[in-house]
Amino acid sequence: MNTNPAEQWKQGAEQFQAFQQSLGQGWAQAMEAFKGLDVSGMGPGMPSTDGTAQVPKINFAPDKLREVQQNYMRESGELWNQSLMGTLKNVDRRFSGQAWDDNRFASFTAGAYLLNARTLMAMVDAADCDQKAKNRIRFAVDQWIAASSPSNFLALNAEAQKKAVDSKGESIAKGVKNLIADIQQGHVSMTDMSLFEVGRNVATTEGAVVFENELFQLIEYKSSTDKVHERPFLMVPPCINKYYILDLQPENSLVKYSVDQGQHTFLVSWRNPDQSLAKKGWDDYVENGPIKAISVVQEITGAKTINALGFCVGGTILTTALAVLAARGEKPVNSLTLLTTLLDFSNTGILDVFIDEK
For residue 190, what is the DSSP state? Predict the structure, then answer.
């Protein structure tokens, strides 16, 4: 082992020089990646009139880009020095475990990752483009950053490595078992699907289908009380979930709770759309969804008005339906409850990354 301070300094300087060179190469690669980044949201580029793809060009404000690069080089030097001195502490919760602190290589890798992540997001801010394009860039970069975290890879994850050692390989064996199960079922899952069965331990509230059309089935639930309220209660869940999103385990089932409170409860169960519904649009779902369900509930119960609940996009469809009915001079809903429902689409949040007029 070399204990000569001068020689150690020389080796450290050589290592740092190589490190700085790699940073410069990484910076150049990042710039090239940004130049080819798709911000159109429509594949490798917007098609031009001659059929070729046009990748939108991304320019940067020179002063902002220069500042980002200077900060990057300065912080990388600080990172290197902290790593050599053993004072590097990563406060990010993904790398805050003791195993990361005990492993200098892992700690430095995590620190470099966090620095690169901050720099890439700063480059996004330096991009000279319209806000929608910048939002798309930010989303794409953010997804790439999250996916490339050292905590996602066994070879770089100090905590996973420690757990593998402490469990004598059992943690890895379980991981491989889960991987094989995911491959066999054709998709990645965080749940053991074999543990759940509709009607046994999921969707156990008793009910029956009392109406159906090409878009939905209407479920009427059996009352659990001697008397029920005069006005029936209709639930409209989102189209992207099974109906039992509101009727999971008995202890957290909104449907069961409603029935137990003496509500005469109905629920829309949307059909999974296939090619036969490819031409159906918003108007179809409004007219043949909640509007039809409301009229069926009124017909079955004889009630002039009902109470209704809309959940997520089910609430958006329901409120649209009520607006249409109001324009027709009809007001069949006495009270409306909405859960996580978006009504004002002037600011759609992350959805705006995926959606435009085209």
Answer: S
